[in-house]
Amino acid sequence: MLRHALLSGTLAAAATTAAASLLSRRATGSPAAALNATSHFLWGERAGRRDSYSLKYTAVGALANYGAFIFWAVLYEALGRGKHRSVAQALFDGAAVSATAYVTDYHLVPRRLTPGFEMRLPRRSLAAIYAALALGLAAVNILSSEKR
Question: How far is CA 119 from the centre of its chain?
């Protein structure tokens, strides 16, 4: 299960990072701004003001997000219990985990532990980010069902 979670979590991280970067570029002119803001748990509010790529902000934000996506991927894989999912079931499970992540991230944890995207992106952009999470989690199942 952990091997599957590493794969689905990595795809979810890639999809979500790509979405956040595109949305960040549109909103701020900088693709790094939203990812930098995710390092606010360590660097505080100044992380949300940083526009350029840096090891201090961007790398820390990317690593923190990657860890979070692996965590959510473990939940996603546990829902499937090692069984092959249909595309519909994979999308449903991905959406369920993504919705759980959103509620946890923005309604249960302290502000310092939120993803930080909200510091640089309009609130409506969060829907696209969590949709990318759902699709990224389901991607392995979707791609493997196309090979059949």
Answer: 15
DSSP of 32-74: THHHHHTTHHHHGGGGGG--S--IIIIIHHHHHHHHHHHHHHH
**141-146: long-range contacts (C-beta < 8 A, 24 or more apart)?**
141/80, 141/84, 141/85, 141/86, 141/87, 141/89, 141/90, 142/87, 142/90, 142/91, 144/84, 145/84, 145/85, 145/86, 145/87, 145/90
For residues 72-94, give the mean pLDDT.
92
User: What's the number of domains the chain is made of?
Assistant: 1
- In tens, the pLDDT along 112-146 reads 999 999 999 999 999 999 999 999 999 998 888 76
Domain range for 23 is 2-146
| Dist CA 88 CA 141 (whole Å) | 10
| Token reading at 20 | 């956040």
Q: Which residue has the tokens 């546990």?
A: 78
Alpha helices (H) along 81-106: 87-103
